[in-house]
Amino acid sequence: MTTSPRYNLLVPRFDRTGPCNVAVDIGREAKRRGYSVRMLALSGGNTRDDLDEFDEVRLFRWRDLVSLRGVLHTHCLRPDLIGGLVALMGRCQVVTTLHNYFLIDLGFDHRRWQVAISWQLWRRAVAAMDHAVCISHAMQRYYRRKLPGATLSTAYNFRAPPEPAGQAPRADMAARFTPWIEEQRRRGRRVLAFVGGIHRRKNVLGLMAALATREDVALVFCGDGNQIEELRAGIVRQRCEERMLVLGAIARPDLVLAEVDALVLPSFAEGMPLVVLEAARLDKPALMSNIAVHREMAALGLGTTFDHRRFRDLDQALGTVTPCGSRQGAVRRIWDAEFTPEVGFARYEHLLGNSATLRPEQGRAS
Q: What pTM value is reported for the model?
């Protein structure tokens, strides 16, 4: 009789933020390879409708601390603290994926004393785990300095192939976006898309101001956040409503990415942005801020970087943007080689090893 190894994924909540998207993709590939996959969340509410394929989807229960077996894969601060406790009990192989630069990222949204306390708790939890996975070599360099003695490895994020277009996008989005992009094409403009949170860390207001006078460039913003009204007001103040469109949060930003010439991401800080991989699987390059992880992604061939503080070399970056259909699959080939679920999950399997608790086995009695 066949038994399936257990792969438990613990996230803050079931939503469509980057860490949960990563966990779901890991779970899907684990399920495809024969694992019994359990998705657990610490907070109530579920804004996803794509978790039915997993063996169990529910809230974490405190008795899970002693009942979980196999692999426990945690994502973000609170799940990592739970993972540290489980690791101390020695009942699971515990791994965390480090999604950001902890001190930098938390510093954008929390007070210094809150960050300091969280850091002290978190680093002790990670030190107890079997593996801490960095999602870029740049991040691994950072944590080698910050977490001496931790077991650190690198495994790039990955994304599933693009979903079929399926159901048409929300009617009000289609009514706004379709005629807008047709008008930009008619005027011969290069069309860029920003996808992400509209807040300070993403530097969207700086990007809007830098492109406000560029009559040859159009820009669509997909996302929501605490700066969205300031963004809208800035576009009106700069008199560029014709060239800049704020769609807000949409369920299928890939449908927008498929229609533009390039992604633009001017962030002050990133872990390894999934949206760059989502653009790459559609053969779209990314114009990225000049931070370490983006330089690493540019070196792989996913796009180019620019000065995101003064925007002095933005013209040079824009010069690399070519019309849709003229790249002949160059960016997509990089995604095929490095960022598919098959390639990405194989890195985790290699890291976790071939123990009986991890790999499927034939002929074992349940």
A: 0.87
